[in-house]
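Hi there, hope your week has been kind to you so far. Thanks so much in advance, here it is:
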Amino acid sequence: MGHMTLLKNTTKRLWIGRLLGMILVIPFTCFRATHLTHHAKMCTPEDYELWPYCKPKYSVSSRRAFCVFDLLLGTLSAPIIYSRIFWKRNSPLTEPECADVKFEYMLSVLFWSAITSIVVYLSMTEKVSSESLSLWWFAPLAFAATLNSLRKLIEHVGLSNYDPMFGTRTIQPTNPIARLISFGNYDLNLHGPHHRYGRAKHNELSEKLAEALENQPAVRDIVFRSYSGAAWHTLQCVLKSPGVGEACIRDLATEKETGSSA
């Protein structure tokens, strides 16, 4: 939806995106603008989607702390990251886009107010048992947010390159179950080709990857055959630098200097 390529009807794309954003408390206009900056300025300090990992001015410890927060409480970190483009001083959003964001926030307020009112009413009138109103109903939302944060970390964090193919980890699974998961997620894990060819359909990404490997064999170093292999590589990189681009370059240089001094 963020790429506006899933459906041909523009109005349907917009409203499906808005309804999803309404539940997540992430205005669709913010999400789309943030994701477009990620494609246009990947891993640079202007990459809103990879904030704060892309900011060299933040310390390693602060970025590492945010990394833990991002993983454990993605339901909170995602609205912060994706809505920041609207709340930031000198926002790049146009006035019509800002008006759309306010409308989309209103949808979220109305939706969650309605949910809260219904829950309170059912609880006070004892029309349903207390077990039926368990907070576990929100577990899928929390789990999905954690998976999204993990996906984002695996895709970029700990890599210093700005090139679409070298600044991303690409996963081309061989396991049948993993391949099914990949297909269900529009092959987004073929992330290098996804960045280089932003409007390519998901069934074209494998072919694009094959072309990239033929033209740039070094890409093979960050192409993984399993999610676990990519996750292990991410962990090793994040321990050295919870950053991307310039922030990662600075972290690695500092670590090298510290090691040399020792």
